[in-house]
Design a protein that fits this description.
alpha+beta
């Protein structure tokens, strides 16, 4: 099996708490030779050291969003508060339909210090992607971000 496929699989196991970060780091060290060929040296080092935010960022960029995720809103900051309200309403409906579920803030997640707004976290039942919906606060218009 391709090492990149295995890497994504292992990252999904971390995301789902099926393995610990320490177990992932041990796996990275055991497959260092193959991983060094496919990753930049900086990314490899941070994964080897267990930098979870980097791992989840890598995972979110390497896996495509499923059709259910794409249908909600594009990943990023909202243009205005109307977009936030539309996304929030869509999430409430999708939760009732069983397409998404609310989850606690993942233990590995680190909120950027410049974001003071309230954030809710959601998991796509179809693909397992984890999303963050951030509410508007002052001039910040909120956003919909894939975090894993």
């Amino acid at each position: 099996m391709n090492i990149n496929v295995l890497l994504n699989y292992k990252l999904q196991e971390v995301r789902s708490s099926l393995i610990t970060v320490d177990e992932f780091c041990q796996w990275v060290k055991a497959h260092a030779k193959e991983l060094k060929n496919g990753l930049s040296s900086g990314v490899f080092l941070e994964m080897k050291l267990g930098k979870v935010m980097l791992m989840m960022d890598y995972l979110s960029k390497s896996l495509k969003d499923c059709l259910k995720c794409v249908a909600i809103h594009t990943d990023g900051q909202f243009i205005d508060r109307v977009e936030f309200n539309q996304c929030d309403d869509a999430m409430e409906a999708l939760i009732l339909e069983g397409v998404f579920r609310r989850i606690k803030e993942p233990c590995w997640f680190e909120e950027p210090s410049n974001i003071l707004a309230f954030s809710g976290f959601y998991e796509c039942i179809s693909c397992g992607a984890i999303w963050k919906l951030t509410s508007p606060e002052r001039e910040y218009t909120g956003g919909w971000f894939r975090i894993a």
